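Need tokens for this chain, all 90 residues.
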Amino acid sequence: MNKNDLISAVADASGLTKGDTTKAVEAVFDVITAALAKGDEVRLVGFGTFSVAKRKASTGRNPRTGEPMSIKASAQPKFKAGKGLKDAVN
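Here are the structure tokens for all 90 residues:
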């Protein structure tokens, strides 16, 4: 399912117009993105938790040449599924 499929499915399930649903879905993505950018956690009970994981700087190897190279520290978005979502899938 891609973003357009998600918007269509939400519009059908909620009875909203496709335009209103697009705005709502975009707003949800924007709010989650903004919260993660600030370093906050977004917890949706029964669905899951979006958070930011910090990666330390490390040394890796260039796959072509085998030379060592430094990998910068970074922040990675992370999602942990909640019990309700896990139960629905299994």
